[in-house]
Model the fold of this input.
Amino acid sequence: MTTFREQFREHIQTLQTKICKGLEEEDGKAKFVSDKWERPGGGGGDTRVISNGNIFEKGGVNTSIVHGDLTPQAAQQLNVNGKSFFACGLSLVIHPFNPFVPTVHANWRYFELYDQNGLPVDAWFGGGTDLTPYYLVEEDAIHFHSIQKKSCDRFGDSLYPKFKEQCDQYFINHHRGEERRGIGGIFFDHCREDDQHDLKFWKTFTETNGTVFLEGYLPIVSKRKQTLFTDKHKYWQEIRRGRYVEFNLIHDRGTLFGLKTNGRTESILMSLPPTVRFDYNYIPEQGSEEEKLINVLMKPKEWV
Amino acid sequence: MTTFREQFREHIQTLQTKICKGLEEEDGKAKFVSDKWERPGGGGGDTRVISNGNIFEKGGVNTSIVHGDLTPQAAQQLNVNGKSFFACGLSLVIHPFNPFVPTVHANWRYFELYDQNGLPVDAWFGGGTDLTPYYLVEEDAIHFHSIQKKSCDRFGDSLYPKFKEQCDQYFINHHRGEERRGIGGIFFDHCREDDQHDLKFWKTFTETNGTVFLEGYLPIVSKRKQTLFTDKHKYWQEIRRGRYVEFNLIHDRGTLFGLKTNGRTESILMSLPPTVRFDYNYIPEQGSEEEKLINVLMKPKEWV
Done:
């Protein structure tokens, strides 16, 4: 499995550079700034941040490759047994300025666990990609989900429906009557070797989903970046960004796990939107475009 | 103890009206709007919200009087045994527009627990008041803490130091190297009948802290509301408001308890600031006023 560690590390580092380049070219102004950091317990990361671009108001494309002893608290949160671990992943969140350009999030990760002799006892892949529009453009939702489906389908017909459903069930603000953070995508976790698939299958699956990321997102950015918007649209975007904050800080397992196990706070909270509003009891007008979005967030659709 | 229920309910309802009136008079423009709600499991509340005033950008002064069966989840979170409960409290958070006027938070509450025959098995008071400035004005910190101390001292010399310390230990963003949310005040909880004090002692103590609230806060508002400020000061306020959001959503027991036990979301999240910024790795300039604040948040001072 050590080979997988090396191969997946190399994959995410190459992918990080490729994704940053693709986003920079689309933006045409801002460049990613790299912040390399070390983890006291072992390993480190490369946090690449973009801000105040033509299109992208704030975003991060981060890799981390960490290893060390598994604290009892971390083992409990992950619900696993093991003495030490290796974890390697790429996490990205991009917040555009224009409310008609959706926010996107993706994460691809590999985890290995070892016993007290340092022998591997468990290994799994996880990840996914999901879209958070502020206004619903059906054509964009269809495009985004089509790419996610295509990325899954070469590995079997059952995977997209399963991981699309898991995504819809994961990104929920449970304190807001099951309102979703966005219109989903795919979400998969704990993809281990089993009767049907070996670990290499899940490695290739995870890498493939990373590889199609720009193809899923950039055409939408490109189509919507010129859309004119008013203060009213921006206001709504900032209200919705508030819900993004609520999800990430109250419910997101990755965020809470990171913060509670002394992860690098600034890299973890890079995901939070740049400007945000919290109004008391904000309710969109009946029949409005804003309400149309909420309806889909309350009841996810099959897009493809 | 039933008498305490009635008496404390009456106290917080009278106090709610008095505090709203005091804040409205200071603001001179905005009025509190009342939103009465019912809890499906029993009881309800009165959420009073102020927004877009001359001074107050957003604020809420809420009472709730709820009762019903204690879910296993709620019992676990509260770390108590009981079949049913009664809870009654006033919670307030005020976010001023001007970065030189501090945000304030207060809460006073009474809790009763009953066995399966409806007989009381436990009862306690809790609460406190704390201040969150964006710029440190020592004179204001001293005034605020003096009033908190005065409110404690008639009940014994040991209470202010103890509850001041508990406040400094409670409002911590643990994921940010023990940075406090603000400059504290007092925080007390689970104040039960014991060898030294009966429950009536804690009732009077809690009521007294509520009664001095305006005396602690309004003179500071009055002194700072005319202070001129620039975009730079406002920017910093919004960055600090981000930390307020982080504390409330990641660490605050009351907020998380409310959200996880199907409390009224809009009343609970009324506490979140109106406009907020999250920048990557924002660090104040060395020797600046902004850094001066951080220094006190990292290492709380004795103000009186």
About this structure: Chain A has one domain: 2-298.
